[in-house]
Write a structure and sequence with these properties.
The complex is a heterodimer.
Chain A lengths: L1 H9 L3 H41 L2 E5 L18 H11 L4 E13 L4 E9 L1 H7 L13 E5 H7 L6 E7 L5 E13 L4 H6 E5 H8 L8 E5 L6 H11 L3 E5 H44 L1 H9 L4 H37 L1 E2 L16 E2 L5 H26 L4 H6 L3
Parallel strand pairs in A: 3-7, 4-6
Antiparallel strand pairs in A: 1-8, 1-9, 2-3, 2-5, 2-8, 4-7, 5-6, 10-11
Helix pairs in contact in A: 1-11, 2-9, 2-11, 2-12, 9-11, 9-12, 11-12
Chain B lengths: L5 E12 L6 E12 L3 E5 L6 H8 L7 E6 L2 E2 L5 H11 E4 L11 H12 L4 H14 L15 H13 L5 E5 L7 H18 L3 E5 L2 H4 L4 E6 L2 E7 L6
Parallel strand pairs in B: 3-8, 3-9, 6-7, 7-8
Antiparallel strand pairs in B: 1-2, 1-4, 4-5, 9-10
Helix pairs in contact in B: 3-4, 3-5, 5-6
Classes of the chains: A alpha+beta, B alpha/beta.
The complex binds adenosine-5'-diphosphate and magnesium ion.
Chain lengths: ~400, ~240
C-alpha cells in the first residue's frame, strides 16, 4: 500500500521528480566514470612501471638506491646469480633476471647524450619486460636504444652509434659503430628517453666486466602479492642487499594519483550535495503541499513512523531510478573505455620528474564501483529526505484539517 | 449483561486554549456519554465548541482537564501512538471537506482505512470494499479518482472509508457543510440508514437546523457547555 501510494505521489509532480532524478543521475554517473578513470590511471601506471622497468621485486646492493642517479658499478650486487637461482627455486613460476646499469654517453660523432646503459641477457629481458620487439637478438656490436634517444638523433634501426663509458676499473672506454637492432618503446620515460640496452657480450667487453657481475636482480612473480614475502626472504638470506617491491616503488604514483582521485571525489561530492539539497527541498515541498493530506492520514490513525516512511519512500523511488540509470550509463561509458581505451594527451616529459603515461589509457571499471555508486546515491537521498519527512510528519491533524475551507 | 452500551464518554472535560494571558474556554465541564447505536447531533452556533468535543472524542485532541473514555478505556495516559491506534481501530472520521487521498481511487480510499489498521487480509479487504461500494451505490465509480467525483459522491466514499472497519463510533464534523441541500439530505439519509440497518454509532456536528431534526438524539452546545441533551421521538426523513 505504502509503495503504491508512494509511487503515485512520486509521479504527481513530474518536473520536480525529474529534477531530483536527473541530479542524482548525473552525480552517480560521474562518480562511476571518474572512479573508473582514476582507477584506470593507477592500474595503467603501476602496470607500466612493473612491465617496463621494475618488475615485481628489484634487488640491489645496500646503499645503491641512494646513489642510483649515478648507476655506480664499482660495488656490484653480491651473489647475484645465487639470489636469482634461490628465488626461482623457492617460488615456483618466478622468473629472475640479472642486469647491470651504468652511466654512459651515446653520440653520432657530432653531439652526445648522457644515458643509462644497461647490460643484460636480451632473451631474458624480452621475457621479463614489455619494452618493444626484442625478438631479434642480433649479433656483433649491437644495441637497443630508447625511442626517445633515437628520436633526438634521428636514428632508426640499422643505424650505428658511438658509446663511451667507464669500465669497472674506472678507466674510460668507448665503442664505435654499434648497430641499433631495435628501438625500445615502453611509454616509460626512463626506458624510452634514457636507456641503451646492450647484450651481455657487448656490455661486458665495454665495461671490462666479468661474466655474472650485476648491479641488480629483478624478479617477476606469478602472484604479485608474493612480492613482500620474496623481498623479506631475500633480505634475510643475503646480507648486504636491499629488495624493493613494486608496491614500494609505485607508491609515489599511487600517491600522486590519489590527489587526482581526491579532486574528482570533491567534484562528485559537490554534485551529490547539490542533489541532496534538491532531494531535501523536493521532499519538503511535496509534503508541505500535502499538509492536509498528511493530517488526514494521521487522523485516520496512520502512525507517524508510517507517514515518515511514506514520504521517504517517495523520494527513494526517484533516487533509486536516478542512481540506477546514472550508474548504468556511467558503467556503459566506463566499461567501453575499459575495453577499448581512450587516447590520452601526452604529458610533456620533464626530465626525470615525469610520470610515465602511456598514450592509450584504459579505464578500470569494476562492478563494485557501480554498486557503490548506486548505494551512495540512494544513501545520500535517504539522509536528505529523512529530516524533511520527520518534520512534515509532525503536523497536528486538527490544524492540518482545519487548514482548508 | 456486563457489556456496557457506552462506546465513548467525556467526563468533566474541559479544553482551554492559551491558558494564562488570554484563555479561550472551548469546552467547559462537558459530561457526555455516547451509547451504542446513537445517531447524535451536536448542534450549536459556530464557535460553540462542537469541533472541540468531536476532536476529544476522536482522540485527536486531549482535554486540559477531565477524561475521555473509549470503550470504557481511559485514554488520558495513552501515548500518541496508542491514541493513533485507537483511531485506526475504533473510530471512523467523516470530514467537512471529504479529505480523500487524491492519488487513490474511490475503492482504494475505502481500502485505505483497513490497510492503515493492517489486520485484515487482502482478500477480505477487497470483498468488504466491493460490498461497501455497492451499499453506497458507488459500484460503478470505484476506479475513479476523487477529482472525478462530485462532492456528494466524494462524501459517500468518505462514509465508506469511515465504516469499512466497523468502528465503534463514527464522528462527522459538519459533514454536509460543503454540499447543497439535496445532497446534504442524501448524505444524512445514508448515515441514518447505516445507523438503523447496521447499528453504526454516529455523532455529527452541525449548525444546520434542518439537519438537527434528523438526529435521534440532539445535544445543544453553547459556549463550550452542553445546554440540553434530548431524545427526539418521531424524527423522520
Ligand atoms: N487552536 C485554537 N486556539 C485557540 N482557540 C481555539 C482553537 N481552536 C478552537 N478555538 C476556539 O474554541 C472555541 C470553540 O471552537 P470549535 O470547537 O471549533 O467550535 P465549533 O466547532 O462549534 O465552531 C472557539 O471560540 C474557537 O475560537
Ligand atoms: Mg467546528
Amino acid at each position: 500500500m505504502i509503495v503504491r501510494l508512494a509511487l503515485r505521489n512520486a509521479l504527481r509532480n513530474r518536473r520536480r521528480s525529474l529534477f531530483t532524478l536527473l541530479s542524482l543521475l548525473i552525480g552517480v554517473g560521474l562518480l562511476v566514470i571518474s572512479q573508473s578513470f582514476v582507477d584506470g590511471i593507477e592500474r595503467t601506471l603501476v602496470a607500466n612501471e612493473i612491465d617496463s622497468e621494475h618488475s615485481h621485486v628489484r634487488i640491489v646492493p645496500q646503499g645503491y638506491l641512494e646513489e642510483e642517479d649515478y648507476y655506480p658499478i664499482d660495488r656490484p650486487l653480491p651473489n647475484a646469480a645465487q639470489i636469482a637461482t634461490f628465488v626461482m627455486e623457492r617460488f615456483p613460476g618466478a622468473f629472475a633476471l640479472s642486469r647491470m646499469g651504468f652511466r654512459a654517453e651515446v653520440g653520432d660523432g657530432q653531439k652526445t647524450l648522457r644515458v643509462r646503459g644497461m647490460t643484460a641477457n636480451i632473451t631474458e629481458y624480452a621475457k621479463m619486460f614489455r619494452v618493444g620487439d626484442l625478438a631479434d637478438i642480433g649479433n656483433g656490436q649491437r644495441c637497443f636504444v630508447g625511442s626517445g634517444i633515437a628520436g633526438a638523433f634521428g636514428w632508426t634501426k640499422g643505424d650505428t652509434l658511438e658509446i663511451q663509458t667507464k669500465t669497472i676499473h674506472g678507466t674510460l672506454n668507448s665503442a664505435k659503430s654499434i648497430q641499433i637492432v631495435e628501438l625500445l618503446r615502453s611509454s616509460h620515460p626512463l626506458v624510452d628517453d634514457f636507456t641503451v640496452l646492450l647484450p651481455n657480450d657487448v656490455g661486458q667487453t665495454l665495461l671490462d666486466s666479468p661474466e655474472g657481475r650485476a648491479t641488480e636482480v629483478l624478479v617477476r612473480l606469478p602472484n604479485p602479492d608474493d612480492a613482500e614475502q620474496v623481498a623479506a626472504l631475500v633480505q634475510n638470506t643475503f646480507p648486504g642487499v636491499v629488495a624493493q617491491t613494486w608496491r614500494q616503488k609505485t607508491q609515489y604514483l599511487i600517491d600522486i594519483n590519489n590527489l587526482r582521485r581526491g579532486a574528482f571525489q570533491i567534484i562528485v561530492m559537490i554534485i551529490l550535495l547539490i542533489s541532496a539539497a534538491g532531494v531535501a527541498n523536493t521532499t519538503l515541498m511535496s509534503a508541505f503541499e500535502r499538509t492536509t493530506e498528511i493530517g488526514t492520514m494521521l487522523a485516520l490513525g496512520m502512525r507517524r513512523g508510517t507517514v515518515v516512511w511514506l514520504l521517504v519512500t517517495e523520494t527513494l523511488m526517484i533516487a533509486l531510478v536516478g542512481s540506477a540509470v546514472g550508474a548504468g550509463l556511467g558503467s556503459v561509458v566506463s566499461g567501453w573505455f575499459t575495453t577499448v581505451g581512450i587516447e590520452f594527451p601526452e604529458i610533456p616529459v620533464e626530465a626525470g620528474a615525469a610520470i610515465p603515461m602511456p598514450p592509450l589509457l584504459y579505464f578500470a571499471w569494476r562492478p563494485e564501483i557501480t554498486i557503490f555508486a548506486v548505494g551512495l546515491g540512494v544513501t545520500v537521498a535517504f539522509i536528505a529526505a529523512l529530516w524533511p519527512a520527520l518534520r512534515s510528519s509532525r503536523v497536528d491533524p486538527i490544524t492540518a484539517l482545519r487548514g482548508e475551507a | 449483561m456486563t457489556q456496557t452500551t457506552t462506546v465513548a464518554a467525556l467526563q468533566s472535560a474541559h479544553r482551554i486554549y492559551n491558558p494564562g494571558d488570554n484563555p479561550v474556554v472551548a469546552m467547559a465541564n462537558v459530561n457526555l456519554e455516547i451509547r451504542r447505536g446513537d445517531f447524535l447531533a451536536l448542534a450549536g452556533p459556530s464557535g460553540s465548541g462542537k469541533s472541540t468535543i468531536l476532536n476529544c472524542l476522536g482522540c485527536l485532541d486531549t482535554p486540559t482537564q477531565g477524561r475521555v473514555l473509549i470503550l470504557d478505556k481511559d485514554t488520558s495516559l495513552l501515548s500518541k501512538q496508542q491514541l493513533s491506534d485507537i483511531r485506526s481501530q475504533h473510530i471512523g472520521f467523516i470530514f467537512q471537506s471529504f479529505n480523500l487521498i487524491p492519488v487513490l481511487s474511490a475503492a482504494e480510499n475505502i481500502e485505505f482505512a483497513l490497510q492503515i489498521r493492517g489486520d485484515i487480509g487482502p482478500a477480505e479487504t477487497k470483498e468488504r470494499t466491493a460490498a461497501m461500494l455497492k451499499r453506497l451505490r458507488l459500484n460503478n465509480l470505484g476506479h475513479r479518482r476523487p477529482s472525478q467525483l462530485s462532492g456528494g459522491q466524494q462524501q459517500r466514499v468518505a462514509i465508506g472509508r469511515a465504516l469499512i472497519k466497523n468502528p465503534a463510533l463514527v464522528l462527522a464534523d459538519e459533514p454536509t457543510a460543503n454540499l447543497d441541500r439535496a445532497t446534504s439530505e442524501e448524505i444524512i439519509q445514508i448515515m441514518r440508514d447505516m445507523n438503523e440497518e447496521m447499528g453504526v454509532t454516529f455523532v455529527f456536528a452541525t449548525h444546520d437546523h434542518d439537519l438537527m431534526q434528523k438526529a435521534r438524539r440532539l445535544v445543544m452546545v453553547q459556549d463550550g457547555r452542553i445546554q440540553s441533551d434530548t431524545t427526539q421521538t418521531g424524527t423522520s426523513l
